[in-house]
Amino acid sequence: MGRPSADKPSAARAPKKPKGLRTKAPLPEPARKVQRPPRAPGETASADVLAIAQTAARAASDKKAVDVRGYDVSGRVDYADVLVLMSGRSDRHVAAIADAIEAALSEQTPKRKPIMVEGRPQSTWIVLDYGDLVAHVFQEEARSHYDLDGIWTDARKLTFEL
């Protein structure tokens, strides 16, 4: 009676899970970068990307962002064509600027959502990655510390109508 049967080996049995324990749900897949053809060195960003950058800069300016600057980095990096950098005076100001950029770009193109948003909880530096455009919203101290403006001194500077 207490002997295992020949068709059910006792060593292959999986232990039973105690009742009431939940298994963890699988983690969501990370956002994938949109693959786009690289631009040739010296090639400038498209008019569409420049229009999107203009919209982002105007939205930031409407929220009183400080020192809004744009850089055409197409042909220099493979992750974006345009960088827009700006500063806010506090963590709430930085978050409000980032929210305004997201709202303005989704209003301009309803399906346009950022591929990735980083830095929201602390709001000292929020990065909004739209694939062809990356917007960096800094607190003033963080902007001077990381000096992205200094890195892109040789990139073509963009002028925005604010």
Summarize the structure.
With 162 residues, the protein is an alpha+beta fold.
CATH superfamily of the domain at 47-158: Beta Polymerase, domain 2
Strand order of the largest sheet: 3-4-5-2-1-6
Radius of gyration: 24 Å
Based on secondary structure, the structural category is alpha+beta
Task: Estimate the mean pLDDT confidence.
Answer: 84
Oligomer: single chain
Helix count from the secondary structure assignment: 4
Strand count: 6
Shape: globular
Termini separation: 87 Å
Helix content: 25-40%
What is the CATH C-level name of the domain at 47-158?
Answer: Alpha Beta
Question: What is the fold-level CATH name, i.e. the topology of the domain at 47-158?
Answer: Beta Polymerase, domain 2
* Uncertain stretches: none
Known CATH architecture of the domain at 47-158 = 2-Layer Sandwich
Largest sheet: number of strands, sense, barrel closure? 6 strands, mixed
Order of helices and strands: HEEHEEEHHE
Structural features:
single chain; 162 residues; alpha+beta; Beta Polymerase, domain 2; six-stranded mixed sheet; 4 helices
Your description of this structure?
The protein has helices at 47-62, 91-108, 140-146, 148-151, and strands at 66-72, 82-88, 116-118, 125-129, 133-139, 156-158. The chain is built from 4 helices and 6 strands. The longest helix is centred in the middle third of the chain and has 18 residues, at 91-108. The protein has 162 residues and is an alpha+beta fold. It is globular, with a radius of gyration of 24 Å. The protein starts with 46 loop residues before the first helix and ends with a strand. It has a domain at 47-158: Beta Polymerase, domain 2. A 6-stranded mixed sheet has the order 3-4-5-2-1-6.
